[in-house]
Specification:
The complex is a heterotrimer of chains A (248), B (255) and C (245). Chain A is built from 7 helices and 9 strands, in the order βββαββαααβαβαββα. Chain A has 248 residues and is α/β, with parallel strands linked by helices. Chain A folds into 2 domains: 170 residues, Rossmann fold (3-Layer(aba) Sandwich); 66 residues, no CATH class. Chain C has one domain: MetI-like fold. Chain C contains 10 helices and no strands. The radius of gyration of chain C is 22 Å and the shape is elongated. The chains are: A alpha/beta (248), B mainly alpha (255), C mainly alpha (245). At the B-C interface, helix 1, helix 4, helix 5, helix 8 and helix 9 of B face helix 1, helix 4, helix 5, helix 8 and helix 9 of C.
């Protein structure tokens, strides 16, 4: 569970002050998949970074049920941020290596993850030899390596081509159902938000704040038929209208 | 002006810290004077030497050699670089050997120059010249090669003579590169001057050092070391000032 | 390019070899290339040149490693504690600007005529380029890497060993390449100013005996040692960049 209370973030001081996020309250339950969308500058990435403790809030607080763990959250960055000097397998094993997991156990886990994200055969490749989509798969596997109950994803698919993106969406949905993790996904794409989320948070810019949330009432597992479901199409068009209003 | 005062204050502060540390180690910490004389004894020795006029000839000798070597080395370095720039086939064959020389410890030719030119003034200036020459050559060549090709077109369109083109377009355009070389060359010049005086002769700061070492006059050694350090700092400051004043056009404005 | 460079090098040697008899230059001023080559071989066979080379190289390596380790450590402290850097920067710039030749006589006074003053001088000249390289390597590192170390809650040591050091390796190589040239020069200066072993010592002895062939041979040998060190590091840098970037 993630409990967000009156969380806000302001950058700069005096006249140069910018409110990145106005006080926000939200409770996210275990096993939920929350999509966060909104135009640039709506504070969606800031929200994610605050939850991950990458930045300190100006006020309010985030309570994680996993706070006692060494690594309360897994994080997937927009660009994969793989270490270019390590192979795919070494990159995925990195979180395990740095928390003292025995090598044999870690190797088994890596093998499992490589299969989960569909990178079999590329274990020994270096990041520069992979396509953007494959790098992002490796980054997801790394984030899952030490099994964090919460996974935060900051526009993870914005740099991959459309076809790969749809495949990765399906796989993320499958991974979510298989592992039962709590996932927060920041995205620009309304289709992606509606297709993946069990809840969609819509945020608006200047100053960044939460505008509205939708519970997504679409059956699991999601797939091609979801995309033809009238409920899905209605939600997408409603979200799109909202986004248009905010950017115009 | 305001921007100038702060660094001066900071540097003075740093200098003060150094002197304080020196004083502490030589005094309260009890380092023997033959290893580390107190700042006061070195200061008073330098002051006496200035008053009695004994320091001036040595300092002047070193500075004069550096200046001559620096100027001659710069002129030849720039001219040869221009030749290389204008004759690409020359640079094809000779750049390899020059790279080897560039990475070599060039100070090693000091003994060779002493054999060739004796122990006098000529040898010292030739050594400084040869140390200045290479960095200026490398900097100038890089400078000439990075000239905006539209300036070449301009020179053609204006139908400039060779000399005009060199003096009015190529040389000024390559000045930033040349200056990078001069700054490295100036440090080398100081190293060459001191080392040459250390190895032979009876003038200059380098001679003072070797004389003081041989006769166990530690305060004199420290005085000479201090003067050398200040000479280096002064050269650095002067070159930075020249660069700031005349080459401001080449650096993007900080905004 | 490489071939032409070799042709250039051979061309210089041939010109030198031909010019000596034609202009009738006295041998004590300019011996021919063959004479110089024979002298180097002689010094290897009869003398202890290999040992002198070993002495100089070990001074260079010892000082280099010392200076590099201290330089990397200093850069690490500066990047973690900006206030330390802020306070020490004027002092460091001041020390960096002071010509290192001014320090050499002091090191000879304090540490004697053995290897240690040379090692110390090499360490001093190595410190600055390595520290600067490491600091800019960390500073211009992809910012997401530091986010990654926060997300993975890496310990300071893990952060250094797994992220910062490897990320800085390309710039470290560039710094080390600059440093090797300085390091060779520092070792030779130290040996010229006072030593009883090392390549600089052989050079100084050659000068005292007006033995031009030995002096020229040592100059050439030193050039190639300096170039070889440079080439090895440059090769290493390119390998690293090709492989990972």
């Amino acid at each position: 569970m993630i409990k967000i209370e009156k969380l806000s973030k302001t950058y700069g001081q005096g006249d140069g002050q910018v409110v990145a996020l106005e006080p926000l309250d939200q409770t996210i339950n275990e096993g939920e998949f929350v999509s966060i969308i909104g135009p640039s500058g709506c504070g969606k990435s800031t929200l994610l970074r605050l939850i991950a403790n990458l930045e300190a809030p100006t006020s309010g607080r985030v309570t994680l049920e996993t706070a006692g763990l060494k690594r309360p959250v897994g994080f997937v960055f927009q660009d994969a941020v793989l270490l270019p000097w390590k192979s795919v397998a070494d990159n995925i094993r990195f979180p395990l290596d740095t928390s003292g997991v025995p090598r044999k156990l870690a190797d088994e886990k890596v093998k499992e993850l490589v299969e989960l994200v569909g990178l079999k055969g590329f274990e020994k490749s270096l990041p520069k030899q992979l396509s953007g989509g494959m790098r992002q798969r490796a980054a997801i596997a790394r984030a899952l390596a030490d099994d964090p109950p919460i996974l935060l994803m900051d526009e993870p698919f914005s740099a991959v081509d459309l076809l790969t993106r749809e495949t990765l969406n399906d796989e993320l949905s499958r991974i979510w159902q298989k592992t039962g993790k709590t996932i927060l996904l920041v995205t620009h794409s309304v289709e992606e938000a509606a297709y993946l989320g069990s809840r969609v948070m819509v945020m608006s810019p200047r100053p960044g704040r939460l505008k509205v949330t939708y519970e997504v009432d679409l059956p699991l597992p999601r797939g091609e038929c979801t995309k033809r479901d009238p409920k899905f199409l209605d939600l997408v068009s409603e979200l799109r209208t909202l986004m248009r209003e905010m950017t115009s | 002006m305001k921007g100038r005062i702060k660094p001066v204050l900071e540097y003075s502060g740093a200098l003060l810290v150094l002197v304080a540390a020196w004083w502490y180690v030589s005094g309260p910490m009890g380092m023997p004077a033959y290893l580390l004389p107190s700042p006061a004894s070195v200061g008073s020795l330098l002051w006496d030497m200035i008053l009695s006029g004994k320091l001036w000839p040595h300092l002047a000798f070193t500075v004069q050699n550096i200046l001559i070597g620096l100027i001659v080395g710069t002129v030849f370095g720039v001219l040869l670089a221009y030749m290389f720039f204008k004759t690409p086939s020359l640079s094809d064959y000779l750049e390899g050997p020059l790279v080897v020389i560039q990475t070599a410890p060039k100070i090693a030719i000091a003994p060779l120059i002493i054999i060739w030119f004796g122990l006098g003034l000529t040898a010292k200036i030739v050594l400084i010249f040869s140390l200045v020459f290479f960095p200026v050559f490398a900097g100038a060549l890089a400078g000439f090669r990075s000239i905006d090709s539209r300036l070449h077109d301009l020179a053609l369109l204006m139908n400039l003579s060779r000399t005009q083109r060199f003096l009015r377009i190529d040389l000024p355009a390559a000045l930033p590169g040349i200056f990078v070389g001069i700054k490295i060359g100036a440090i080398q010049a100081l190293v060459g001057a001191i080392l040459a005086e250390w190895m032979s002769g009876s003038d200059g700061l380098g001679y003072l050092m070797t004389f003081a070492t041989a006769t166990y006059k530690t305060p004199l050694l420290f005085g000479a070391v201090l003067m050398t350090a200040f000479l280096g700092l002064a050269m650095h400051a002067i070159l930075n000032e020249i660069e700031a004043r005349y080459l401001a056009w080449s650096t993007p404005d900080e905004q | 390019m490489f071939l032409k460079a070799i042709i250039g090098l051979v061309g210089i040697a041939v010109l030198w070899g031909v010019a000596v008899p034609i202009f009738d230059v006295p041998h004590y001023l300019l011996p021919g290339p063959i004479e110089v080559a024979e002298r180097i071989i002689f010094l290897f066979q009869r003398g202890d040149l290999a040992w002198h080379i070993y002495v100089t190289l070990s001074e260079v390596f010892g000082g280099f490693i010392l200076g590099a380790v201290v330089g990397i450590a200093a850069a690490l402290v500066f990047s973690r504690f900006p206030i330390v850097e802020r306070v020490l920067t004027p002092l460091i710039l001041l020390l960096q600007t002071i010509p290192k030749i001014a320090i050499a006589p002091l090191l000879l006074l304090w540490l004697g005529l053995g290897a240690s003053p040379k090692v110390a001088l090499v360490a001093v000249v190595t410190f600055f380029p390595v520290m600067t390289a490491m600091l800019s390597g960390i500073r211009y590192m992809n910012k997401s890497y530091s986010d990654l170390s926060v997300v993975l809650r890496l310990s300071p040591w893990q952060r250094f060993w797994h992220i910062e050091l490897p990320a800085a390796i390309p710039t470290l190589f560039a710094g080390a390449t600059v440093a090797t040239t300085l390091a060779m020069t520092a070792a030779v200066i130290g040996e010229l100013m006072g030593a009883n072993k090392g390549m600089g010592f052989v050079l100084a002895t050659g000068q005292e005996n007006a033995d031009t062939a030995t002096v020229m041979g040592m100059v050439i040998l030193l050039s190639f040692v300096g170039w070889a060190l440079f080439a090895i590091l440059d090769y290493g840098r390119r390998r690293v960049e090709d492989r990972f970037l």
